[in-house]
Every structure is written in structure tokens, then in C-alpha cells.
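User: Quick sanity check before I run a bigger batch. Here is a single chain. Can you write out its predicted 3D structure?
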Amino acid sequence: MTQKIGLLGKKLGMTQVFAEDGEAIPVTVIQAGPNVVVGIRTQERDGYSALVLGFEEKPVRLANKPELGNAKATNGKPSRFVRELRLPADEVAKYQVGQTLNPKDVFTDNAAVDVEGWSKGKGYQGVIKRHHMAGMTRAHGTHEYFRHGGSIGCRLTPQRVHKGKRMAGQMGNYKVSIQNLQLFRILADDGCILVRGSVPGASNEYVVVTMAATRTAYKRKGQGKEEVRSKNPLKASKKAAAGRG
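Assistant: Done. Predicted structure follows.
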């Protein structure tokens, strides 16, 4: 299991910002602060080490007894969104219950982050929308089978429907993790971060943003590499004609 520090947040929506070179960049705005440390898991007591974070205050009248007990321990209010982040024991020792964390305390600009959230639920859908099947031909001899899934098995062999067969069913509402996104900018005064591109879920849905598991810095594919010029004069002339030479 990847053990990386991160924050809980809420997806506010998407917008665009301009980089220093004038490039228009689509970004997702995530409210990622403040987070409150509502608990600490230790190897001696719990069998593993982790940091328990809470995000967004919850009215006391809506909290149950365990949530009220956690709030009393932190001298604060209950949290709506609570998650554990597995971390090494020496990393967990740096934090205390009741401590407040903001994006500036955890992230840096241009860092690579992983975002975990729940995808938009589409309800019960057919094979055309769910699996992008082509459907039947719309000819004169076709009746009531335009959007059907077709055959799903054989009576003789294997006498059953294979597991994982693409059929109609629940679409969306899955836990999705998008890796190696660019944390484009931190808005410290607003407690928000701007993540390049889209992240799972609808607006006002909760997400978990952690440092990337597979890299330490964000790097775009193909950026910073000079294009290798072709030695073929025919290809070179076509590039020159297109204005790319």
C-alpha cells in the first residue's frame, strides 16, 4: 500500500487559468483546507500507523455519539468527511490530534498528485451507452432489436454466461483514482488548489488528494524534448510548407 501524505477536499468545479507563457490551462478547483487531525493510529495500539483527517464541520445535532467523542478529543466540532491516510510511523509522529493542516503545509506548486473520488452515477444503462456497442442495423427487416445486446452465450458450451460479460447494468458510481496530475497552483488565502485537468465526481463531491505514488514531480509527456528532424528531404519540405519546419 502506498503511504503518502495528502488532504481531504471538495471538488468545487472547473475553470481555466493562464500560465506565464500565455497557455490557457483547464483546471479543477478543489477546496482542500482546512483539514483537522481527528485521530492517530499507532503500530502498538492499532497494529498499523495512520493519520485520521476530518474535513468540513458537521452540525452537532447531526452527529452520532462516536463522532461527538472524536470532536471532544480534538476540542472542535464533528467532521462531515473523515478518512485515514496510511503513513510510516515516523511521519505520523510529526502530527498531533487537533492540529490543523492547510494546502501550503502539505503540497507545493507543480507537484504530482493522485486524486481519488467517486465517479458520476449514471443509473441503470443499456449496452449502447455503457459499453459503446454498435447495435443492430436499422433496415426494414429489423424490429425491436436496434439497441439490444445480442447473444450472451451458448446452451451446449459452456452452458452458462461468462463472468464479466458486457451487459446492461449499473453505470458509474465507482471509486476512481487518477494518478500523476499536476498541482498547478495553490490558493493559500482561500484554502484551494488548482489541479490541471479533470478529476472524478460531480461538483461538491468529496475527494482525497495525495502526493503521487509513482513520481515526485510532474512532467508532461513530450515537453522539454527537441523534435528530431527528419533526414528525408520530402518530409522536411512538407513540414516547411505546413509551417512546422
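Residues 122-171 form one domain.

User: Great, the batch can go ahead then.
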